[in-house]
Design a protein that fits this description.
This protein is α/β, with parallel strands linked by helices. It contains 7 helices and 9 strands; from the N terminus they run H-E-H-E-H-E-H-E-H-E-H-E-E-E-E-H. The chain has one domain.
Length: 227
């Protein structure tokens, strides 16, 4: 049985410094981005309903997602390690809540919290290939949560026309200032229960949906800009 890791005071202080430096830098870059949005009606539909979504996306697209979904009270699952600590501190500054856990540690506790958040009327979000990958391979947490609660998954993908790509496992994309950014939000996806075969089929289907959304954002960025 895993015990919950406790970060030292020094590591927590370092995480606080990273968040203090990175948060305004991210906000400054994102304020210059030029957005093209497809599928906004899917999000808006949830705003008219009591049932909140389980937002699902790839780990490498979290930065631009912070800006687009900022200030909406979304609760995000983040890991309990050092990286999760500074990430949690950053996303708090953009108006998100956190449920601390990951596929490798603390998952059950975090999923219980996410169920409680959904019950309380708060949308939740998971980077479905995090926290360590493999990249672009969906873990079952989001689809299990959807099957257990009846709340639908809302997938999205973001792509930038000009960006920096980190040499991390997830190839994190950081849009460059004034880049064009396309976000494609997919139709809500329901999961009929938590049986192993149901969860696996939904997991594979979710991967395919995100691939199609990525292709859509690529087409959106290649389309001529209207004047």
């Amino acid at each position: 049985m895993h015990t919950e890791p406790v970060l030292s005071r020094g590591r927590r202080a370092k995480a606080a410094v990273i968040a203090a430096v990175a948060s305004p830098a991210i906000a400054a870059i994102c304020s210059t981005l030029r957005w093209t949005v497809d599928g906004a009606e899917h999000w808006e539909r949830f705003m008219r309903l009591e049932r909140q979504p389980i937002i699902a996306f790839w780990h490498g697209r979290i930065l631009a997602g912070l800006h687009y979904f900022r200030g909406r009270g979304i609760v995000v699952m983040t890991s309990q390690n050092f990286d999760g600590e500074w990430i949690a501190r950053i996303i708090h500054r953009f108006g998100f809540g956190t449920a601390r856990g990951s596929t490798s540690r603390g998952a059950a506790r975090a999923l219980i919290q996410l169920r409680q958040d959904l019950r309380a009327g708060r949308p939740v979000a998971l980077t479905i290939d995090g926290p360590r990958g493999p990249a672009r391979v969906a873990q079952p947490g989001a689809v299990w949560l959807a099957g257990a609660t009846g709340h639908p998954i809302l997938p999205f993908h973001i792509e930038a026309s000009d960006s920096w790509t980190l040499r991390s496992w997830d190839r994190t994309q950081i849009p460059k200032p004034f880049a064009r950014v396309a976000i494609a939000i997919g139709e809500p996806m329901t999961v009929a229960g938590t049986a192993d075969d149901v969860v696996e089929a939904a997991r594979v289907a979710l991967e395919e949906v995100l691939r199609r959304l990525e292709n859509r954002t690529t087409l959106m960025l290649s389309a001529p800009q209207s004047r």
